[in-house]
Structure formats: structure tokens, C-alpha cells
Design a protein that fits this description.
Length: about 280
């Protein structure tokens, strides 16, 4: 049996019109990561996920643990994205220098927040990213890698505040936005229906974001915890589906193994007969 890694269905090397790798005909599938582990990263990549989001906001990642997981993603043709903790310019810069394929920005509210975050993705004169040709993303000083020729990292802002929803038409028209990620959980909390993904008020807000993004020609991402939920998102026009969080998926899988055994009779082969 071949030991070669299976290439994910999504070809993230493709560069469609939005230059991001998203927005193609096929749906992109990913997983959210809060547990740093190159081996777990390889497991998810070999399972076929096209991208993984390494979480520095809620996860246990730091600059020491990001690089091994980025390398593990790249080894299997899986796109490594990082959710930064906010809009700290140095943190953003260091994540890009490590070679992140895209950055996910949380808790943005105003149009100016989105503009400022987007500017951090690019070198001057287009943006505010500091230029260092000797970092990993620039080939450690390779003469063939220039600021102008470097791969454009994906800018993936999360729309997860009601203030951002009010500005959504202007946000999705920002040229630097590559994908609009809908932060349904934070939105549900702000709407007073925390965790109820089928709440009518949340559905209405999501539809508003989806329609605005569609008019602007921007791909959309969101999370689904079941196959039915993923299909429903795809029918609504979501092109990048995140299939939950690693911690929850691992716990869920282990619980599913044990559940049928909890009330079953003991295995006679392992039961010691009392004398």
C-alpha cells in the first residue's frame, strides 16, 4: 500500500481572479486548530483537508509551535493559515514571515479596522508590512524572491461583530479582502441567541453578509459541525467550510468509540471469575 500523502481535493496552488485560492467551483474544506502538534497536523492533512487555521487567539499556539505545523501542512499540500490574536503589527508580521499562506483576523468592527488589518498584509508602498528579505517567507534572502514577486498571502477577516455587519457592503468591496469569514458563534452571542445556529435572527444576519459578499464577488467561509450543516452552507453559497475544531473533533471521535461499550456486558474473555 502506498504511503504517499493524498492530495487534498482543493488545489490551493491555483490563483483565480481574487488571487487567493478560494472562490473556485469546488468547495474548500478545512479544520480549525487549537492544539499545536505537527503529527496531528499531518493526520488532518492526510485526511484530505485543504487548509488548516492555526489559532493564536483561542488556541495554544505561539511562535515556537507555529513553524512545525506550517511545515507539516506544506509537506502534504495543505494550506497553513493563522488566526492572529488581533491587529498587533509585529505579531502579524512575524506570522507572515514564517510563511503563513493566509491570516485570519478576529474582532474587527469598523471599516477602518478592516482597512488597517488589510494593509498589514502587504509591503510598502501598498501596505505597512515591514520588509525583511532574510525571513522564511522570502526564501532566506534568495535572490529570486523579491517583495514584488513574493506570494500574496490571503487576507481573511472575520465578520463577527454587529458593527461590522452594518458596514458589510463597504467591507466586502475592499480590494484586499480575499475571503469573508462569517463568525457565526460570536454573532449569535451578540444577537442574544448564543450557540443557536438555526436562530432566525442569526440566519437573517448571515444571509445579509452572504448576499453582500456575493454582489462584490468575494468568496465566503463559515463553520459546520455536521455533514448536513456543511451541505446547507454550500447551498447558501459558502465556498470555504471549516469542519469544527480539532479538540472537539478528537473528543467527539473518542466518545463515539466508547459510547456503545458503556452499557454493554463485560467481555467474558477479560472477566475474572471469582473463586
Amino acid at each position: 500500500m502506498s504511503t504517499e500523502s493524498r492530495k487534498p481535493e482543493t488545489d490551493f496552488s491555483a490563483q483565480p481572479k481574487n488571487q487567493s485560492g478560494f472562490g473556485e467551483a469546488k468547495t474548500s474544506h478545512g479544520i480549525w486548530r487549537i492544539i499545536p502538534s505537527p503529527m496531528v497536523t499531518e493526520v488532518f492533512a492526510q485526511a484530505g483537508f485543504g487548509f488548516q487555521i492555526l489559532d493564536c487567539e483561542h488556541g495554544a499556539y505561539d511562535f515556537a509551535t507555529l513553524l512545525p505545523d506550517i511545515l507539516a501542512c506544506e509537506r502534504h499540500g495543505c494550506a497553513p493559515c493563522i488566526r492572529v490574536s488581533g491587529t498587533n503589527k509585529i505579531e502579524v508580521q512575524r506570522c507572515l514571515d514564517l510563511g503563513a499562506r493566509g491570516l485570519v483576523f478576529p474582532q474587527l468592527a469598523t471599516l477602518e479596522d478592516f482597512e488597517r488589518a488589510g494593509a498589514m498584509m502587504d509591503y510598502a508602498p501598498a501596505g505597512t508590512r515591514g520588509y525583511n528579505p532574510f525571513v522564511r517567507a522570502m526564501g532566506f534572502g534568495s535572490a529570486t524572491t523579491t517583495a514584488a514577486g513574493a506570494a500574496r498571502p490571503w487576507f481573511i477577516p472575520i465578520v463577527e461583530t454587529l458593527q461590522a455587519v452594518e458596514a458589510i457592503d463597504a467591507i466586502v468591496r475592499l480590494p484586499r479582502v480575499d475571503l469573508v469569514y462569517i463568525g457565526a458563534y460570536d454573532l449569535s452571542a451578540q444577537l442574544g441567541c448564543a450557540g443557536r445556529m438555526d436562530a432566525p435572527e442569526l440566519t437573517a444576519v448571515m444571509d445579509r453578509i452572504i448576499e453582500a459578499a456575493r454582489r462584490a464577488g468575494k468568496p465566503i467561509g463559515s463553520m459546520a459541525l455536521t455533514a448536513d450543516a456543511a451541505r446547507a452552507l454550500a447551498r447558501r453559497g459558502i465556498q470555504a467550510i471549516v469542519h469544527g475544531v480539532d479538540s472537539h473533533r478528537i473528543k467527539q471521535s473518542m466518545a463515539a468509540i466508547l459510547a456503545p461499550l458503556q452499557d454493554s456486558p463485560s467481555d467474558p474473555a477479560t472477566t475474572t471469575k471469582s473463586e
